[in-house]
Amino acid sequence: MDLAKSITDAKLRVIKNDGTLIEFHPDQLRAALSEFTNNPDVIKRSEVLILTQLLSYSEIKQFDLKCIVYRTLRQLRYSKVANQYYRKKLAHEL
Fold it and tell me: Which residues form the ATP-cone domain (predicted)?
């Protein structure tokens, strides 16, 4: 996927909650989405939209990244997947 290569080439960094920086890899996104669905169409559509949004960042807070994933799933009307993602990845951070 060209978007994944663009993100990797851009060296997107994620600022974790403890302040440390980690490099983002698109495979992490696919793995996270795969935790909540086995549907390849849902994963691919979500992944493309999320990666497109991330191209405008050089650094992003981990919480903001999770919010982008959640909002994108909701926008695509994958409510069940979005709700599962929210409960597991976001609810405890609010």
Answer: 12-94
**pLDDT tens-digit profile of 48-64?**
999 999 999 999 999 99
Phi, psi of 37, rounded to the nearest 5 degrees: -155, 150
pTM: 0.90
What is the helix (H) or strand (E) element at residue 8, kind and residue range?
helix 2-10
Distances (CA, A) of 19 to 2, 32, 57: 30, 21, 17
Do residues 69 and 62 make contact, with C-beta atoms less than 8 angstroms apart? no
Residue count (the chain): 94
